[in-house]
## 1
Amino acid sequence: MPIDLKDTQDVYKDAGESVDFIILNLNRDDHEEDLDGVRELSDRIQAIKRSMRIRRADGNLNIAFGFSYSAWTYLFPNSNVPKELEDFQPIKGPKYTAVATPGDLFLHVRAADEGIVYEVVDQIMGFARYFTTVEDETKGFRYLEGRAIIGFIDGTENPEVIESSEYAVIGDEDPEFINGSYAFAQKYLHNMDNWKGLSTEDQEKAIGRRKYTDLELKEEEKLPNAHNIASKDEYGGVEHKIVRMNVPFSNPAENETGTYFIGYSRYFAVTKRMLINMFTKSDRILDFSTPISGTEFFIPSKSVLDQIVDGER
């Protein structure tokens, strides 16, 4: 059974210029009320997207909507669970910990400008706020030249667009949930003063690449725990990839700046191994970047969303 990209949500496309990440918790006071709300929301999101794409055909609107393990098993207790959907557990390294935080529903909305993102999120929350509370909302943006907020070109290790679905979309290894995806959402706060205090050479050794040209350093030039070493997954002697759409966020007047890491994967095991490597090897970037959240979500195919809408889950 081949992957059908017409059936996938927007998990393998570009990160957008303006971005809003939203994590919601279900009220859990009334199961039927929550389930009815989720069914309507699953239907409305697709309709809102179709409408906005007509209103702003040039807006490059993309939306991903998903469920945590906790939400899926609560809402659909008689349904099978996607094979690699789980409650994310903290990963403790010798110096730092990848924390686990709560969340039931996940929205990743991005477009060419903030006006489109605002209109879409406002319409979605017009339905969602009656049966959910907000765990977190983070507004991201495309930084200059598409660089990470720490100044390096981001997404270098991403697969090419033509190949990205192979790494981001579930295939026939889980046929009931084919064309879905696993998303991992994680926020980092950066100590920008300390990072900026490093010389460019030391920053490059920490990342493993040249800052301005993005050329990879020779192995002997990198720190042993350079980011592009520590974050790799080479399980079984083969490099495994995911699709990242990381974006910066900031309240600069409050001196709060960070990166919202979002990774879409066909196999969540790949994302988890990357995280285990980063934290057990004390990735150098963690000396300047503190994780403050971490949750896994399943992003259903459009077909599975239709099943939810029709009461078949």
## 2
Amino acid sequence: MRYNTLGRTGLFVSELCLGTMTFGESDEGMWAKIGQLGQDEADTLVRTAVEGGVNFIDTADVYADGRSEEITGQAIRNLGLKRDEIVVATKGFGATGLGPNARGNSRYHLIDACKASLKRLQLDHVDLYQIHGFDPVTPIEETLRALDTLVQHGHVRYVGVSNWAAWQITKALGIAERLGLHRFASLQAYYTLVGRELEREIAPMLLSEEVGLMVWSPLAGGFLSGKYSAGDPGDGRRTAFDFPPVEPARGDAVIAALRPIAEDRGVSVARIALAWLLHQRAVTSVIVGAKRPDQLADNLGATEIDLTAEELAALDKVSGLQREYPGWMLERQGQMQRDLLAQRR
């Protein structure tokens, strides 16, 4: 297990992060299709992750209506994990009640949501508090000031964001710098071999501005486990909850390229798909979730895979994005300058 700094901070997080979306029983909504793990099962997964070198756990206040946070916090206690050896991240934004102010990124909601998360987690602070989505109503400045208050009061150590566009994050970074507020340390975003849209604008921005990247759903909702085809979701989770979307022809081509690499190494298709992400420069940590310890153990094995240049090229060939403007023009016009850099000793 390797450890990377989270963006422009001195905080080291493991290159794999345990996701807890599967924690918490629910009888309705998407959580009935995703989660359903109780305390004992969650304790086993947390123990497996920590024993595998993971020091990073991610949850959210909307996972199983808060039960995920409760189970995560109790697991930390049940296993006797030292607080200074575990990095705990959670998120706020989603609806936590029926009223119009029980959601979004307003100061009104975020401060109460964070304190409620701390209570469920049985912690006096979280290490990373993330905005779970973009609020088209609340001014970004209001959100940043609320997050800064949470840091100043000791409830939060670092702040991050999830599912924002490149321009939104860049605007927030500029506001934070102008006002002297705590800046986003990380972005949590979707990124896989069958979903590389992030590479157009977001990944270059993250590298330029030194913002870390946490990858959610790195197996595209199980698709990259290799047990589905894009045209036939089978009888797994994607049958009831077909998310994230996968373009059929591209998905099948990626699986076809992954299989021989996995077979040559005697490992699962999922392990190779995760290893590909760990080879991407913008990635700080990849969030892996599981329902069984054997699934999690297999995912942890991705840290041991070093893909060759030929293998990376083969995967890039079937999964790369179509060229778009202004990307192809930037590439063309900047080539002479890149050639000069290549000549340096």
## 3
Amino acid sequence: MAKFQRPAPLRANWQLANTLTPYAALWLLMYLTLGVSIWLTLGLALMAAGFLVRVFIIFHDCTHGSFFASKRANSVVGFATGVLAFTPFAHWRWEHARHHASSGDLDRRGVGDVSTMTVDEYVRASIWERIRYRTMRNPITLFVFAPLLLFLVRQRFSSMGAGQPERRSVLWTNLCLLSTAVILSGVYGWQAYLFIQLVILGVSGAAGVWLFYVQHQFEDVYWERGGDWDFVEAALKGSSFYRLPKVLQWLSGNIGYHHVHHLSARIPNYRLETCHRSDPLFSSVKPVTLRSSLRSLRLRLWDEDAQRLVGFREVRDSRRTGS
């Protein structure tokens, strides 16, 4: 995989251009259409949300140091795209590295993943713990409320254990966001700015959370206890190959090739598909399609005996039959 880890400056700069230019143009068009039709502005905001997902993928690559060969270029572009995506660069880089180091490890859950209980944990839990877990795993919570809370609130504060560079990145990102909000409120009016920004952030955030959910929440996903956990197995079996229509694949920056990404986070997004097609190893990874991914919404608990994700109904039925 080493040959795919080399960044390509021309491809990286072209991706920046074909992402940031349309995103900026859509903000200009939204300004021009405000006095024409709010529905037209809303439609443009939805399009802008798609490009913000692509902005986040560039940001994501920069946190891995894979988008450019230059560490400084990754830091500068990562910080700037992080501001656009309401996410502090150094802080998210620190947290996301922990996700890559522990994904699929049952003994190291809780860092950059979707909260997942085992069947045994759920059966032993109190009624309030079950209600809390069911609420957290409800699709409305996951894809409507959680994205806004994550990007508007959670990312404004540093986590316990964060170092000074991570804390400073949160502070500087917040100052940049405040300055941007003041400037754009002066241009658009604060009501119009809030409306546009919340729509873009809500839709792009929901799409981003959905992508992350599908990448690690499917029936035969990989989970193991620490002693049996294996990095390669976790990458190839615990991260999905999400085969999307070409337009959605482009907007999501090839992140559907998540199994390749987890095997080597140093591969930039614009090389993931080529790497996937280059080796028979990856043909063994069963693809998740847009239609089949919807079935993952009913999967809420990890069954350690069956080695698969199951739904609440399956647990209830098995307890009734005593199996």
